[in-house]
Design brief:
binds adenosine-5'-diphosphate; binds magnesium ion; alpha/beta; seven-stranded mixed β-sheet
Length: 832
């Protein structure tokens, strides 16, 4: 179903409205030429007229049509930016915010002081900034400080089709801010940009916009992309299939970059290694002529060597496994002949028989310039994909989903799509998450295919059949409907939106997720608990519209999850703040340690991985501390790792030698700085500063830290199942939690894995083969009632009290009757 809103196509009959000002931009001739090729340039006037006449405009256009890079420039030239009002652009991904700001600065020949970016950990915004790229989360935080966004004249919400949670909320909030700004006489323009035409959730939602905004569609100058479906699906070994496919393309098809979509970092690396091995390439051959000569020699040598062993190293191609159907007709498998330029003779080559003609014809001798691309990759490595590959090579980018819409990689002619994506799935109520590899949506598959047709006709190889494609869901569901929303609700409450349920969400989150979030926030003390009077129905309604508490306000100022915000809010005791800041930063950044349990391509590599893993385990043991410090468990390891790394100057070398992820360590450093600033702004007298080389905490401090962590992770308490309680074998070494009926276990990577403390708190539960707790610390049972009264209440003794029930000391019952906390009445030593 197409949109019902008016679609502006031709310029209106009115005389073009002249911009009040015209701000010249000094672009280089090459940039001007490249710009002119972008489809959006033809629509500049339509777009600018629509913006001048409407407060809200929607722009739809295929990825690569020039929305992100050009629309800010149109606005800038038309005088929409000034020192007292900038153009703000939000991106759901950090990668895009950084690289797009750099690209636009370069195109406009302006410094990054004028075209800047801000992401959670860093930014280069200055007082001259006029075009500001940022992540959607950053803008949401700004709204909290300045609801009317008075620093901006225009807000562009980019990649709205991704329906990221913060993007959705921003559109809801801006639908209210825009009219408010108009009333104040300082109009704010809102531009929503989307890669697909599916914008009904925005346009047809009467609660969102009272007047349906115009939709401008930019006709993409998309070259035809021939879709090749696999006949057989599903393939378990899609990574291997990708390898075979890339080899085949590289050996047989005309020049043009290859873009492979895989699901995760480990897969990306493993495919990169396999490809580099199959088509070796000496890097650094772009520098000078000498280098070039050398590289040509390299290529010649390589050609020779390939000739000798080519038959054995390359897999035989099974031509029958593909059927070829043109785009838009993908409803059935067809064995039809194709009209495209790769059918026929080239493809008919049989590579398996060592036919020398085949060898001459194929350009298999070209080295393959293989680059990985995923969001955790260091930015300077990410940026490599934008520059031309070294002469005499073919570019092959092996990417995760980041390459689907956010980034346009130049020169791609072939796309290999495994059809899968790795997503984090959450249980809406318990927040238990698991990473699962699932099929993508049809919309995603088409986006991926589209990446092949940017500069010339291309080809997309789908490693699944068209029948499977037809079973894909049409679009993936908006993020907000699929994850816990406590962070979002806290942010909204901080904006004094009390009846969250009445908020104009483009797609509202499920009622049970909203209720779970409010309940958690009440338990954390972030919301004022409603009086428990009146009928049950009224009580429930009251629970869903609690105002924020003073503690909640403090928690909301920290750019971290509410649970962590609470830890920070409690840490102004016993000089614990620097440590809590570090622990919270480490938990927020996640994945501090390198993953060495990945499949290796050679025995040599296997041995290397093993060695590295042993070294990491040894270091973790060291970082876990001694004596009672060890009870802080994995969080002590995080603290120790960050401390050690900073002590060594946070160098790449130190990280590599000790199994730490360098990028994570840099992010932790930045987040520590940012949280320190946030803390100082809340408690102006704290005078806190980060000494990267913090000294280790004392034993007493570690005990306080354990209590602080417990207070923050309140609903994440687990009690070890006692021998007498064992229901069956599946409960061996298991823990019971307040939220789940199933057994959960301490993750084998935890330093507490073997110790099995009686009570623990966990950072998160991740489901793989079992439910595993990660980020585990031991806590003392007597702390629980003092620190977490909302999670405990005193009940009558059970008929069959569990053996841990202790009549002298009393007992605490959690909300779930299945979990009993045995406690003594001694009050803990912590001041809360
Ligand atoms: P859209 O937002 O519509 O997807 P973009 O504005 O991101 O399109 O990209 C427009 C064009 O600009 C792309 O086709 C690409 O060729 C070019 N481009 C974008 N970023 C870079 C970059 N960092 N380096 C070189 N070219 C780029
Ligand atoms: Mg874009």
């Amino acid at each position: 179903a197409g949109p019902t809103a008016p679609v502006c196509q031709a310029a209106s009959t009115k005389p073009p409205c002249k911009p009040a000002v015209f701000v010249p931009v000094d672009r280089s001739p090459e940039i001007e030429e490249a710009r002119l090729k972008l489809p959006i340039l033809a629509e500049e006037q339509v777009i600018m007229e629509a913006i001048s006449e409407n407060p809200i405009v929607i722009i739809c256009g295929e990825t690569g049509s020039g929305k992100t890079t050009q629309v800010p420039q149109f606005l800038y030239e038309a005088g929409y930016a000034s020192p007292d009002g900038a153009i703000g652009i939000t991106e759901p991904r950090r990668v895009a915010a950084v690289s797009m700001s750099q690209r636009v600065a370069k195109e406009m020949n302006l410094s990054h002081r004028v075209v800047s970016y801000q992401i959670r950990y860093e930014g280069n915004v200055s007082d001259e900034t006029q075009i500001k790229f940022m992540t959607d989360g950053v803008l949401l935080k700004e709204i909290q400080k300045d609801f009317l966004l008075s620093k901006y004249k225009v807000i562009i919400i980019d990649e709205a089709h991704e329906r990221s949670m913060y993007t959705d909320i921003l559109i809801g909030l801006l639908s209210r801010i825009v009219p408010l700004r108009a009333k104040k006489g300082r109009p704010l323009k809102l531009i929503v940009m989307s890669a697909t035409l599916r914008v009904e959730d925005f346009t047809e939602n009467k609660r969102l916009f009272s007047v349906t905004p115009p939709i401008i569609q930019v006709d993409a100058r998309q070259f035809p992309v021939t879709i090749h479906f696999n006949k057989k699906t599903p393939l378990d070994d899609y990574s291997g299939e990708c390898f075979r496919k890339v080899c085949k393309i590289h050996r047989m098809l005309p020049p043009g970059g290859i873009l492979v979509f895989l699901t995760g970092q480990a897969e990306v690396h493993s495919l990169c290694r396999r490809l580099r091995k199959a088509f070796p390439f000496q890097k650094n051959n772009t520098a000078g002529d000498d280098d070039k000569e050398e590289s040509m020699e390299e290529i010649r040598k390589f050609k020779k060597s390939r000739k000798r062993k080519k038959v054995t190293t390359l897999p035989k191609i099974d031509l029958d496994s593909y059927s070829v159907v043109p785009v838009d007709e993908g409803d059935e498998d067809r064995d039809a002949e194709t009209d495209d330029d790769i059918a026929g003779s080239d493809l008919d080559l049989d590579l398996g028989d060592g036919d020398s003609e085949a060898d001459e014809k194929s350009d298999s001798s070209l080295p393959l310039y293989v680059l990985p691309l995923y969001s955790l990759l260091a930015p300077e490595k990410q940026a490599k994909v934008f520059s031309a590959p070294p002469p005499g090579t073919r570019l092959c980018v092996v990417a995760t989903n980041v390459a689907e819409t956010s980034l346009t990689i130049p020169g791609i002619k072939y796309v290999v799509d495994c059809g899968k994506v790795k997503k984090r799935f959450y249980d809406k109520i318990t927040g238990v998450s698991s990473f699962r590899v699932t099929w993508i949506s049809q919309a995603s598959a088409n986006q991926r295919a589209g990446r092949a047709g940017r500069t010339e006709p291309g080809h997309c190889y789908r490693l699944y059949s068209s029948a499977v494609f037809m079973d894909f869901e049409k679009f993936s569901a908006p993020e907000i409907t699929k994850r816990p929303v406590e962070d979002l609700i806290l942010q909204m409450k901080a904006l004094n939106i009390e009846k969250v349920i009445n908020f104009p969400f483009p797609t509202p989150p499920p009622a049970e997720a909203l209720a779970a979030a409010e309940e958690l926030l009440i338990a954390l003390g972030a919301l004022k608990e409603p009086p428990m009077t009146g009928r049950l129905k009224q009580q429930l309604a009251a629970k869903l519209s609690c105002p924020i508490s003073p503690l909640g306000r403090i928690m909301a100022t920290f750019p971290v999850a509410p649970r962590y915000g609470k830890m920070l809010a409690l840490s102004r005791q016993h000089d614990c703040l620097p440590y809590t800041i570090t622990i919270v930063s480490a938990m927020t950044v996640r994945e501090l340690f390198e993953e060495f349990d990945r499949p290796a391509v050679s025995e040599e590599e296997t041995a290397k991985l093993k060695e590295k893993k042993a070294r990491l385990l040894q270091m973790q043991k060291l970082w876990a501390g001694q004596g009672t410090m060890q009870k802080l468990g994995d969080l002590m390891v995080m603290l120790g790792a960050v401390g050690a790394c900073e002590y060594a100057g946070c160098t790449r070398k130190f990280c590599e030698e000790n199994g730490l992820r360098y990028k994570a360590m840099l992010e932790i450093r930045r987040l520590r700085g940012q949280l320190t600033t946030a803390v100082n702004s809340v408690c102006t007298d704290a005078g806190l500063y980060v000494d990267p080389k913090m000294k280790p905490p004392t034993e007493a401090q570690v005990t306080y830290l354990r209590q602080i962590v417990l207070a923050g992770l309140g609903d994440h308490v687990a009690r070890r199942v006692q021998a007498e309680e064992l229901l069956d074998d599946k409960w061996k070494n298991a823990y019971k939690t307040a939220l789940l009926d199933d057994p959960v276990f301490i993750h084998p990577s935890s330093v507490l894995f073997k110790q099995l403390p009686e009570f623990v708190v966990y950072q998160e539960i991740v489901e793989t083969t079992k439910m595993y707790m990660k980020g585990v610390s031991a806590v003392e049972p007597e702390w629980i009632p003092a620190l977490l009264p909302p999670y405990c209440h005193f009940g009558k003794p059970l008929e069959n009290p569990p053996p841990s029930y202790c009549p002298e000391t009393g007992r605490i019952r959690c909300h779930r009757p299945s979990v009993f906390y045995r406690v003594s009445w001694q009050l803990p030593a912590v001041e809360v």
